[in-house]
């Protein structure tokens, strides 16, 4: 009988997403990679820092990316947690996308600096995370598969 894989595909996907989001968050603090780093603000629309010269960032947004990324390292430990991480994180990023689209720029409610590139990035990240959570769910949790096999064998 073949050995069961140590990690399920959903766990690997959660780990890849976790690394990517953590790296994105950290890069938002590095001069050269982030232009206008001297104009990086804690929050609000006044931040003038651009990650890769394209994505408007602030300390708050960088921290959100890092926190969601680090949560993925914990989530990747089990099948169920990895699925929950991808689904929950995907919904957070889709929420950021909607926030960027619906909240009027310049209003006091706009505490996270977002531009069109940010909105599309958040939509893409959110959609990919939700898609991974849903499609990789077809690879059933091995801990539950074993219990079904044991029940069938005992009858």
UniProtKB/TrEMBL annotation:
The chain crosses the membrane at residues 12-30, 50-73, 80-100, 120-138. It holds the Pfam family DUF4383. Keywords: Membrane, Transmembrane, Transmembrane helix. This is DUF4383 domain-containing protein.
